[in-house]
Design goal:
InterPro entries: Beta-grasp_dom_sf, Mopterin_synth/thiamin_S_b, Sulfur_Carrier/Prot_Modifier, ThiS/MoaD-like. The chain is of the alpha+beta class. The protein is 24% helix and 22% strand. The longest helix has 11 residues, at 25-35.
Length: 85
């Protein structure tokens, strides 16, 4: 499936898009990390939760759990929140 990569993580993929597979969202992120080592840690914290400043959307709907079932035709979008003052 296609994964859209935010600009802050493109140093890993060198592209705004990547391909990854897996039966769950977590498995997709593991496959992404297999291809681009270190990228999963930037998205998932030590407690195996999506980091506070990251949002993941599957087919335009916010993903609520890493255990969410995935289909090969799904599109995953990783969004990194911006902050400043």
């Amino acid at each position: 499936m296609q994964v859209l990569i935010p600009s802050a993580l493109r140093s890993y993929t060198q592209s705004s898009h990547a391909e990854a597979d897996g039966p769950t969202l977590d498995a997709v992120l593991v496959d992404l990390d297999r291809q681009y080592p270190g990228i999963r840690f930037r998205v998932i914290d030590e407690q195996q939760r999506v980091r506070r400043h990251i949002r993941i959307f599957v087919n335009g709907v916010s993903a609520e759990a890493l255990s969410q079932a995935m289909r090969p035709t799904d599109e995953v979008v990783i969004v990194q929140a911006l902050s400043g003052g």
